[in-house]
Design brief:
heterodimer; A: 75 residues; alpha+beta; SH3 type barrels; 5 strands; B: 710 residues; alpha/beta; Rossmann fold; Helix Hairpins; 28 helices
């Protein structure tokens, strides 16, 4: 079965983070903003061009590019 | 548009900070916090200074310091860049961490956003690991209240073991509580300690006794963590601070190896260790908040989501953005018309009186010429043409900034920047460029990747700064719209101006792409952008600030450049060599070259002389024509147009001048700033030649095409 990632979330959907596949600087950045395993994330809105997408993470709205959001596995 | 003396010019890129105490008993207080939580507002309110504020993350890029007195005690406040963490992944995070760790502040105020406390606590917990002299300031309580978030301040203080104060930084009174807490601060007891998973705690236990022996000035538990984590840059900074290499201590080194071996026995890699540390911090923050922060989750950010649905949705996002730009320009153009006329009338009335005065004093003609016809007249032009649009545009734009709209622009445009292998935050630096390109260049520090930062730096000049767009407005009004100030005319000028700006944006994309395919090769790096909550702008303060700080400041800079330029032009127009004036010699020399691009010698000369400040280009053109021609009536834009037309201007000249104004070399201040920021002559040269060559090319092609059809 193909794993679902943050990128697959549609606007208004919510999921929990299962695993972070990203590496290096972006991994640290995502951890810093609180994107650890088990964190609830809501997909709020896509930008007009479809990318990046705004997510609600621990009370803050953070926009991520698809290259980064596809490396966040979700349940 | 961070436009103050500190953000442009010489002070812009100083990273070294010298603490200036007024008396030895002064205490040094560091002001830390996540980006965009109102740190600068707190700083300004306490110190009475005017550090730039605005609703987007990353405004404060260097340490700034100010002074405040409270209950007879003096405090030096240091505003450090906003960071999410102290684990330093970017330049400004490093600045922040180094100051908290090694700047020896007497206390650290961690400013938190009450609407998003949980994430902010991450930084609080990390700071508490370094020092116990911490006051937590839960700011933006008014916003939190609006969102039905309630926070148990007392409970939070008990849990953290340090004073917690709730504030509304815009209301100065609420900050007294904060300073009260700071002045009464004693090292916290029972300060909250993040508990790490067992293997990490064991490793710390192994290491700590030896570290304690080797270094007493820094919290040893924290230091152990950093040694285990092996943060290379931090350890370098630490050794610098201590004056010796902590790892040269054999006992420390031995225990460190032992502890690390034990960790890897437990299957914890270097990467895994870091993850576990961060996870522990986040979980601790989550746990604390679960007991102290209460909100109705279902609807607490409903208002922002509704606004976002209009401002950034697929259907309405771009149209609204274009419309906002259009409306701002329309208000600027319409509003500037009348005061501009009034100002020029007044200033030229003064000129006549000055002339009378000189005659009365029997002053020699050349003195009158140099001072009145030269210096004064150019200054008068600069003030009357430039001041009104600036005084209207600055506050309007700051309004958008305060509201929180600018990060949304970056959000919407990011995809296109990604296609050019650049960073979406470049949109933010472009917006700052509207105010002043030098400020835009400094702002490029918010971009983490050095490659993308260089792209943003080099292309910033494609956004017409405040010194250039009154030039554009004047030409548009004279040649394309007519002078009747009806609704249709002003709307049309706004539309043309918007198109010019959009052309600049398109060129930014094209050049960014070209750069990342040639000299700055690379793939787009990853990127996170926070979209802050919308905040109600402080209209009164915005108007005061933008007029008194920015407008006056920019205008002064322009006038400083204008007066000598006026003297120079007058001299050139009146010194004759071989029967022709120096001015005619120079413009004649440039003329054949300039004609290739639809300009003439005078225009090109004006752009060259406008190198110190773009504001003086149009005034110099007018002065030069008046010096050679005989036109004496210069009372309105209509007579100006006549002057220009008499000197051979057509609509082609007008368009070419506008294009060249949009695309030419950056002004001297901007170039100096680029040199400071990039630390390389090479990139400064690239930043000079790229827009210049673009300008010549665009003008040449435009004129070639026109000639083909006409």
């Amino acid at each position: 079965m193909i794993e679902r990632t943050l990128k697959d979330l549609e606007e208004g959907q919510t999921a929990r983070v299962k695993k972070l596949l990203s590496e290096g600087g972006i991994r640290r950045r995502l951890l810093d903003i609180g994107l650890i395993e088990g964190t609830e994330v809501e997909c709020l809105q896509k930008s007009p061009a479809g990318d990046p997408v705004a997510y609600l993470i621990r009370g803050a709205v953070i926009a991520l590019r698809s290259e980064d959001s596809c490396k966040v596995l979700i349940n | 548009m961070g436009l103050t003396k500190a953000s442009t010019g010489i002070k812009a890129s100083e990273t070294e900070l010298m603490i200036e105490k007024r008396s030895p008993s002064d205490r040094v207080i560091a002001l830390a916090g996540n980006p965009n939580v109102g740190k600068s507002t707190v700083f300004n309110a306490l110190t009475g200074m005017n550090q730039h504020t605005g609703n987007w993350p990353g405004k404060t890029v260097t340490n700034a310091q100010g002074y405040c007195r409270f209950n007879q005690n003096g405090y030096v406040l240091v505003d450090i860049p906003g960071t999410y963490s102290l684990m330093a992944h970017s330049a400004e995070e490093e600045v922040a961490r180094d100051f908290i760790c090694f700047g020896d502040p007497d206390a650290v105020i961690v400013v938190c956003d009450a609407t998003c406390l949980e994430r902010n606590l991450n930084l609080v917990l990390q700071t508490l690991e370094i020092t116990e002299n911490v006051v937590v300031c839960v700011n933006l309580m008014d916003e939190a209240k609006k969102k039905n978030i309630s926070i148990d301040i007392k409970g939070l203080s008990e849990k953290l073991g340090v004073p917690v104060v709730s504030t509304i930084a815009r209301r100065k009174k609420s900050l007294d509580k904060l300073m009260q807490a700071v002045s009464g601060l004693s090292p916290g007891k029972n300060v909250y300690r993040v508990k790490y998973p067992e293997p990490i705690e064991e490793a710390i236990e192994t290491l700590e006794p030896e570290v304690k022996k080797a270094c007493s000035r820094i919290n040893t538990r924290w230091l152990c963590l950093k040694l285990l984590d092996y943060d290379e840059i931090l350890i370098k900074a630490l050794n610098n601070y201590l004056g010796y290499n902590i790892l040269s201590d054999e006992a420390v080194k031995g225990k460190l190896e032992q502890a690390k071996a034990k960790l890897s026995e437990n299957g914890i890699t270097a990467e895994g260790l870091r993850d576990m540390i961060v996870t522990a911090l986040v979980q601790a923050a989550e746990k604390i908040c679960a007991d102290t922060v209460f909100y109705d989750k279902s609807r607490y950010n409903l208002r922002d989501r509704k606004i976002d649905r209009i401002l950034t949705s697929k259907l309405t996002g771009f149209p609204v953005m274009a419309l906002l730009l259009l409306v701002i320009f329309w208000i600027t153009i319409t509003g500037a018309n009348y005061p501009s006329q009034l100002l020029s009338d007044a200033l030229f009335w003064v000129e006549d009186r000055l002339t009378e005065l000189f005659r009365y004093l029997n002053a020699p003609d050349w003195l009158h010429g140099v001072l009145v016809m030269g210096a004064y007249r150019v200054v008068a032009w600069v003030v009357s043409v430039m001041l009104p649009p600036m005084a209207i545009f600055f506050p309007l734009f700051t309004l958008l900034e305060d509201l929180g709209y600018l990060p949304r622009v970056a959000f919407m445009l990011d995809k296109y920047f990604k296609k050019c292998c650049a960073c979406g935050k470049q949109a933010l630096t472009m917006c700052m460029g509207f105010g002043c390109n030098a400020a835009g260049v400094v702002g490029c520090r918010i971009i983490d990747s050095p490659r993308e930062r260089l792209i943003a730096t080099i292309t910033n000049n494609f956004v017409p700064c405040n010194g250039r767009f009154p030039t554009l407005i004047a030409i548009i009004t004279m040649f394309f719209v007519g002078f009747a100030s009806g609704l249709l005319e002003s709307a049309l000028s706004a539309l043309i101006l918007t198109c010019v700006i959009i052309l600049g944006v398109i060129m930014t994309f094209a050049v960014s792409k070209a750069l990342s395919k040639t000299v700055l090769k690379g793939a787009p790096s990853s990127f996170t952008l926070e979209l802050p909550p919308y905040r109600r702008p402080q209209v009164g303060r915005i108007i005061m600030r933008s007029i008194f700080d920015r407008t006056v400041f920019v205008l002064c800079r322009a006038v400083v450049a204008a007066a000598p330029a006026g003297v120079l032009i007058w001299c050139m127009a009146n010194i004759t060599i071989c029967g022709t004036t120096l001015l005619a010699h120079c413009s004649g020399f440039l003329d054949p070259f300039a004609r290739l691009f639809g300009l003439d010698g005078v225009i090109l000369l004006a752009f060259l002389l406008g190198f110190p400040a773009n504001e003086i280009v149009i005034p110099i053109i007018i002065m030069s024509y008046m010096a050679t021609g005989t036109l004496e009536d210069y009372e309105s834009l209509a007579s100006l147009k006549e002057l220009l037309v008499n000197n051979g201007w057509t609509w082609v000249t007008a368009v070419s001048t506008m294009l060249f104004s949009l695309f030419h070399w950056p002004c001297s201040t901007t170039l100096l700033t680029i040199k400071k920021e990039t630390q390389r002559l090479k990139w400064t040269a690239v930043a000079f030649f790229v827009p210049t060559l673009t300008g010549f090319l665009v003008c040449f092609v435009f004129n070639f095409v026109v000639k083909l059809f006409m």
